[in-house]
Design brief:
- The two termini are 31 Å apart.
- A hairpin with a 2-residue loop joins strand 2 and strand 3.
- It contains 2 helices and 16 strands.
- The longest helix is centred in the middle third of the chain and has 8 residues.
- It is globular.
- The protein has one domain.
- It has a 16-stranded mixed β-sheet that branches.
- The chain is 5% helix and 52% strand.
- It is mainly β.
Length: 264
């Protein structure tokens, strides 16, 4: 089972919608360079959640062709106790324009069991093209990769969004363009292993695939404050289910005002 990789490929199973610029043209007000967020990934197959691995997301200042940019990095590792069963060491990285948040470059290094893959995508947002392994693919206006899409979505203003409204996005993965969306399910409170939070509840619509059952079964809870960091993700998979919980954070741009109580 791909316990770690699911965090990074979940977006690629979104059901296609009519494309528009739902998360485009927004100013970044959610994060700054230096932010680091860590997660624990749990796998459940017999009613008991087992610590399957860790994931870490970081932001660094960078430049691309003398243009100020951010480098978003996501690293996933399986629990060393279970490496003998299935060892995972994945790294995803996206270099984006600091102003538009659109990607210049996306790279991924996948090491999962006996499967190993390295891939680079170079985006030309003006020409609406993506270059992969010497081949050029057509993309839409305002196209993200899976990592830059996550960070761009953190800047959505939920003030005027109604229950069941859909926020759309275009992203490019595996040499294919995906026009997709997720659904706003409202506000609530949730208690995770870290603490009790005020949250915004979201549901991506998933296609059935090798891992996911499909439908509206994945739920993502993000902090109901200006940071909009995910604190929990839950989803059934073909065998069992997965839960991802916030473990630690550093250098958030805003106070974590959504945190109501820390779990001792």
């Amino acid at each position: 089972m791909y316990f770690i990789n699911f965090l990074f490929i979940a977006i690629s199973y979104l059901i296609p919608a009519q494309p528009n610029n739902g998360i485009c043209g927004q100013m970044n007000n959610a994060y700054v360079a230096g932010e680091k967020i860590k997660y624990t990934i749990y796998y459940n197959v017999i009613g008991l959640y087992v610590n399957a691995g860790k994931a870490e997301f970081t932001i660094k200042e960078s430049t691309w062709d003398n243009t100020p940019s951010y480098t978003f990095t996501a690293i996933g590792k399986s629990n060393s106790k279970y490496d003998w069963i299935f060892k995972v060491r994945d790294k995803y990285e996206s270099v984006v324009d600091k102003k538009t948040l659109l990607p210049y470059q996306f790279t991924r290094q996948i090491n999962e069991g006996s499967f190993h893959q390295k891939q680079e995508v170079l985006f030309n947002q003006k020409a609406n093209t993506a270059l992969v392994e010497g081949n050029t693919y057509k993309i839409a206006d305002c196209t993200f990769d899976v990592i830059s899409a996550i960070y761009a979505a953190r800047n959505i203003n939920y003030t005027n969004i109604q229950i069941n409204d859909k926020v759309t996005l275009n992203f490019f993965l595996d040499k294919q363009l995906y026009p997709s969306y997720f659904k706003f399910l409202g506000r609530s409170e949730i208690t995770t292993q870290y603490g009790k939070f005020k949250v915004i509840k979201l549901a991506p619509l998933l296609l059935k695939g090798t891992m996911f059952e499909g439908g509206e079964k994945m739920v993502i809870w993000v902090t109901d404050d200006e940071n909009h960091i995910p604190v929990r993700i839950e989803t059934p998979i073909i065998i069992g289910s997965i839960k991802v919980d916030l473990d630690a954070y550093e250098n958030l741009r805003h106070p974590l005002s959504s945190l109501l109580e820390i779990v001792e």
